[in-house]
Each structure stands twice: as structure tokens, then as C-alpha cells.
Amino acid sequence: MTETEKKNDLFWDFKEMFEQDLKNLQSAKSYINNSETPEIAKQQLYKEITAKYHNIIPNLGSGLYQYFAEQGFYDEVSGDSLSHNLDQIYHKLIAFKTIGFPGVIKETTTPLQQLIISNNSTANTNATVTISISNTIELINQMPPDILSDKEKEELEEKLSAIELAKTSGNKEKLAGKVGNVLKYIADKGIEVGIVVLPYLGKISKFIQSL
Fold first, then answer.
1. What stretch of H or E contains 3?
2. Which candidate, 192, 16, 171, places its Cα nearest to that of 112?
3. Res. 109: pLDDT tops 60
4. Residue environment code for 62-83, b if the CB has 16+ CB neighbours within 10 A, otherwise e
5. Within 10 A of 49 (CB to CB), how many other CB atoms are there?
6. What is the secondary structure of 115-143 as a DSSP string?
7. For 10-118, where are the alpha helices, taking DSSP H only?
8. DSSP at 109
9. Do residues 61 and 72 touch, judged by C-beta distance below 8 A?
10. pLDDT of residue 132
11. Rounded distance, CA 209 to CA 211, Å?
């Protein structure tokens, strides 16, 4: 993929992170004679992967040892149970990638009742969805303080407002830079923020491509 293609792909950072997680899982998967990765490192990887993808990949915990569905809680596992769980999660991530990252790059209903629409979505879908900066800011303000504090919400809203201002300039590079700033912010704050903001960025991506 060229640098231009990467710049135009709003989901590039997510895909890159996802690929690295797949590589880490593949390296950590335990076989009979494989002890290259210490178990404590495998346990830490297990915690990180389940935390990242629990709300993204449907039924991620299904079939895993020490997963409590009612609480959505992944208890600590070790030995053969850990090996089994890592193997299961690895194959679930592979399947999730193969079908096109549904829920991240396709429509899905989130706890905030927000539709995630990729920058490849078209206007002739059956659902009628209005994505605007005002809608996005409204959803940001609905986010609980343990995800974004009031100060962080203000920071994000300022970054989005800067995108709207950059749109009026017609400067493609300037606008892409503003979008990049928001993507970096999302990467730092987590997928919950991305779920709210990415639909708006997808719309801006289409606008940039039209310039």
C-alpha cells in the first residue's frame, strides 16, 4: 500500500494494530515444544487482546475457559487453558478480518445507538443515516466520564471544529492533516471514542477525495 493510500484509509491505524495483534498471538500460541514466550507474557497478551476486542468482535468470549458471559469478564487462565484460549482468539480475529471487520468498517448498532459507516459506504443503503459534526458532538457528550472527561470532550470537539473550518479552505493537505490529528487522538483514547467519531471522519474522507 502506498503512502497516499494509507493517508486516505481512515482505518489504516486500526488495521495496522490488528495485524500486530495477530502476529503477537501467533507468536504466543503454545505448542508442545514451544516455550519461547513466557507464560506471564502470554497472560498479559490475553488480557490486552480481550480488553481491546471484547466490544468489537461478537461472542469473543464464547468457548473460552474462565469467561463469565453475564459479567463480560475474562478471568485469569494458565497452562493448557491459556493455550486453548489464545488459539481460539487467534482464529476469531482471523475470521473477523476475513469478513471485513464488521462493526468497524460496516454498519452495526452500538450501545450508543450509533451506526459505524466506512468511507466506502454509499448513499443508496436501505438505512437513512445523518452524520454531521453536531450529531457527533452530541454523542461525544453522552459518553461516560470514565471514557472521556469533560476536558477531553472539549479537546476533541475543538479538533472536530478545526476540521469543519479546514473544509472551507478547500486545502486538501490541510484538511487531511486535521483528520490525522483526530485519528491520533482516537488511537490514544480507545475504540469507544473511535466508534463515535469514525463515521464523521468517514464522511470527511469522501469530501477530501472529491477535492
1. helix 3-8
2. 192
3. no
4. eebbebeeeeeebeebeeeebb
5. 24
6. B---TT--TTSSS-----HHHHHHHHHHS
7. 12-28, 39-53, 79-98
8. B
9. yes
10. 84
11. 6
Sign of torsion over alpha carbons 23, 53, 11, 159: negative
Helix/strand/coil for 68: strand
Radius of gyration of the chain (CA): 19
Q: How many CA atoms within 13 Å lie on the side-chain side of 136? A: 27
C-alpha cell at 139: 454523542
* Most confidently modeled range among 47-51, 112-116, 173-177, 196-200: 47-51
Query: Length of the chain, please?
Result: 211
Of 197, 193, 196, the C-alpha closest to 179 is 197
Task: Give per-residue pLDDT as tens, 52-83.
Answer: 999 888 889 988 999 999 888 999 999 999 99
Q: DSSP string covering 176-206, please?
A: HHHHHHHHHHHHHH-HHHHHHHHHHHHHHHH
Residue 74 backbone dihedrals phi, psi, to 5 degrees = -105, 105
Contacts with 154 (C-beta within 8 Å, 6 or more apart), sequence order:
none
| pTM of the entire predicted model | 0.49
Give dist(CA 102, CA 59) in Å, integer: 13
For the record, the C-alpha cell of 109 comes out as: 448498532
